[in-house]
């Protein structure tokens, strides 16, 4: 095993003086190979901190070019990089930051054909992608190759972080992305940052947390977010940790598939996103309408698809069926009366409404617009927002 050079001893001196860190863990970082999917909002801060921390080999997968609108949050780039490939510009910047590491750009649009070959040489993968097809592809490839996956996502003011597919002491593996999201949302039902916006500093916070989880997994320090989903609200600085249940999703992953088709993305380039959205319009009720249903004693079913931890924080007495359990609990959902499904903000419940309609023929489902957050704001201000 190579040792640390005099230059590296100086560069990483603040690591080396940390109690419990030392040169052994710094060498683990030096010998590690980390692949970062996406050099955008999440990838930018993650890449900077991974390079600065001394990850010996870093791969960058990104096919896009730098645009002016990226610079509000993608701090890896400057105006001089506009028009250049992100992977190449990022690699150049990281080499300037730390010449002692190896940085390899992969200028590809990651697909089923090359995903396994690209991921295989690396020890751990950090997913900074911004679409569901890539998230499922990267997750499944990591499961097949037994690679830990550091997940992150951002939208508007909120972000999520989790550590998936880590080999445990008993030889089994921790939860993966499909245990959290067994099915993708319908196309157009969940906006991306280009449609809904994102606070510029949020990807910096979430991407940095992802980099921290990478370092923890490699070095064995601390407690990574294994079997947990960390929710972060940048407006309140509130952090909620949801424990994830293993749904044995790993057993269903035997090969890579067509992820555009799996996520319902049309291969017909003439079909616009607007047409897809119009074909998947779902029914909704407002929190005021839900209150009227409750107050009138109407015969309807109210289902909460959040996690038990969230339910314990606050609830409106709906029947708890966590999102990951919905596919196995279809028989608990009535087809004979109105069913209102809700979550924290309306995103997860909307996904479940559309999935149930598409796969099980439901016609009586309504999504609660705005979810628990809207209920707290407009109906019951004493209910805690988390």
Kindly describe this structure.
The chain is α/β, with parallel strands linked by helices and 386 residues long. The protein folds into 2 domains: 32-262, Rossmann fold (3-Layer(aba) Sandwich); 282-378, Oxidized Rhodanese, domain 1. Helix content is 35%, strand content 16%. The strands form 2 sheets. An 8-stranded mixed beta sheet has the order 3-2-1-4-5-6-7-8, with helices on both faces. It has a 5-stranded parallel beta sheet with strand order 9-13-12-10-11. Strand 12 (339-342), helix 15 (347-360) and strand 13 (365-368) form a beta-alpha-beta unit. The longest helix is centred in the middle third of the chain and has 18 residues, at 202-219. Residues 266-280 have low confidence and may be disordered.
Distance between the termini: 47 Å
Structural class: alpha/beta
| Estimated helix fraction | 25-40%
Number of folding domains?
2
Strand order of the largest sheet: 3-2-1-4-5-6-7-8
How much of the residues is beta strand, in percent?
A: 15-25%
CATH class of the largest domain: Alpha Beta
Mean pLDDT: 90
Flag low-confidence runs: 266-280
């Amino acid at each position: 095993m190579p040792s640390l050079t005099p230059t590296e001893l100086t560069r990483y001196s603040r690591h080396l003086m940390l109690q419990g860190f030392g040169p052994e863990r710094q060498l683990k970082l030096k010998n590690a190979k980390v692949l970062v999917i996406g050099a955008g909002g999440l990838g930018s801060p993650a890449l900077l901190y991974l390079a600065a921390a001394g990850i010996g080999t870093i791969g960058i997968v990104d096919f896009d070019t730098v645009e002016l609108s990226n610079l509000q949050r993608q701090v890896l780039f400057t105006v001089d990089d506009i028009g250049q490939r992100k992977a190449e510009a990022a690699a150049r910047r990281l080499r300037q930051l730390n010449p002692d590491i190896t940085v390899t750009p992969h200028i590809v649009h990651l697909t089923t054909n090359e995903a396994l070959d690209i991921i295989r040489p690396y020890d751990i993968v950090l997913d900074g992608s911004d679409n569901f097809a890539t998230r499922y592809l990267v997750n499944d490839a990591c499961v097949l190759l037994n690679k830990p996956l550091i997940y992150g996502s951002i939208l508007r003011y909120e972000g999520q972080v989790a550590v998936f597919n880590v080999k445990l002491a008993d030889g089994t593996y921790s939860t993966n992305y499909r245990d959290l999201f067994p099915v993708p949302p319908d196309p157009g039902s969940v906006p991306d940052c280009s449609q809904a916006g994102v606070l510029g500093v949020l990807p910096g916070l979430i991407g940095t947390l992802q980099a921290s989880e990478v370092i923890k997994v490699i070095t064995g320090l601390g407690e990574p977010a294994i079997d947990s989903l960390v929710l972060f609200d940048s407006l309140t600085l509130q952090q909620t940790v949801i424990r994830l249940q293993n749904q044995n999703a790993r057993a269903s992953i035997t090969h890579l598939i067509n992820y555009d088709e799996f996520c319902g993305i049309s291969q017909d380039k003439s079909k616009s996103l607007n047409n897809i959205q119009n074909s998947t319009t779902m029914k909704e009720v407002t929190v005021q309408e839900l209150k009227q249903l409750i107050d009138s004693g109407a015969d309807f079913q109210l289902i909460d698809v959040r996690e038990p931890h969230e339910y314990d924080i606050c609830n409106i007495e709906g029947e708890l069926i966590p999102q990951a359990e919905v596919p196995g609990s279809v028989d608990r959902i009535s087809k004979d009366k109105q069913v209102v499904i809700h979550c924290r903000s309306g995103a997860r419940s909307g996904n479940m409404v559309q999935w149930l309609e598409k796969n099980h023929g439901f016609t009586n489902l309504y999504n609660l617009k705005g979810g628990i957050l809207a209920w707290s704001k407009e109906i019951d201000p004493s209910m805690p927002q988390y």
